[in-house]
User: What shape does this take?
Amino acid sequence: MQPRRAGRYVDGTLGAGGHARGILEASAPDGQLLGLDVDPQALALARKNLAPYEGRIHLAQASYTSLSTQLALLQWDAVDGIVLDLGASSMQFDTPERGFSFMHDAPLDMRFGPHALMTAADLVNKYSERELADLIYQYGEERESRKIARAIVKARPLHTTRELVAVIESVSPRRGDRVHPATRTFQALRIAVNEELASIEEVLPQAVAALGTGGRLAVISFHSLEDRIVKDFFREQSKDLVNPPYERIYEVERKAIVKEINRKPITPRDEEIKDNPRARSAKLRIVEKT
Ligand SMILES: C[S@@+](CC[C@H](N)C(=O)[O-])C[C@H]1O[C@@H](n2cnc3c(N)ncnc32)[C@H](O)[C@@H]1O
Assistant: This one.
């Protein structure tokens, strides 16, 4: 992002404030940061961790999908950099009662924040077998989605992560050291509960519009569905759009809005993965406003 003095930056997925701190340090002494997170627990922790930067930070419990509104509230008409670090945080995964992890027993919740309309329990207990199968197939890329959906419908109501894991294991048993059979179904439910893919589609155009010339948008995604949305959007925005030839107007209709800083995503090095195994599937893509 190349933060610089007096710049204005947005961290749309504040979490514990790690990226925010990096940006504030790099833009010292007077760079400003707007930090957003839908999770009140994350926001409270970030507020504590970022206390030394009081006066340079603006934090709000809000979705990054409200980016334009949040910027309007601050009367920031252009920003120099925006970072989005998608998905759930380690803190959320490691808090058993949030229901994100199939390793712990907890209520089937999986909401990033109280704004989400449904919990994972609502989905597994209310959706039809067909809807569940489609969701698990699409968002989890799970080949055994139909079998799992059938077993869920037969066993419900389900209230806890352990109950759901038992149902999945009954039709899709553990085999050696392959990923746990519940991994994909849990991912699918989390994406659906938090409307993650629709949120990414909603924020990207707002983010590009909010950047001033030379400003950068950096997005870290953790699975192929997210990365595809980011990649396609960045590609489309970095092309000149020409009128179709049959209209016989040969001028360029719209110049490229951004340029890609990296055509291939940046991925973690081996040492980083060793230090932090959860980073293994991370992909970073960056564009700069032209
Ligand atoms: C991977 S973590 C970010 C960690 C952060 N970069 C750090 O340094 O600690 C993702 C965070 O994004 C938040 N989040 C997910 N969807 C969001 C949304 N639509 N709007 C705002 N925050 C969101 C989650 O609650 C979570 O805290």
Residues 96 and 183 are 16 Å apart (CA to CA). The beta strands are 8-11, 32-37, 57-61, 79-85, 211-221, 241-242, 252-254, 258-260, 283-289. Residues 12-13, 15-19, 36-39, 42, 63-65, 85, 87, 89, 112, 194, 199 surround S-adenosylmethionine (CB under 6 Å). The longest strand covers residues 211-221.
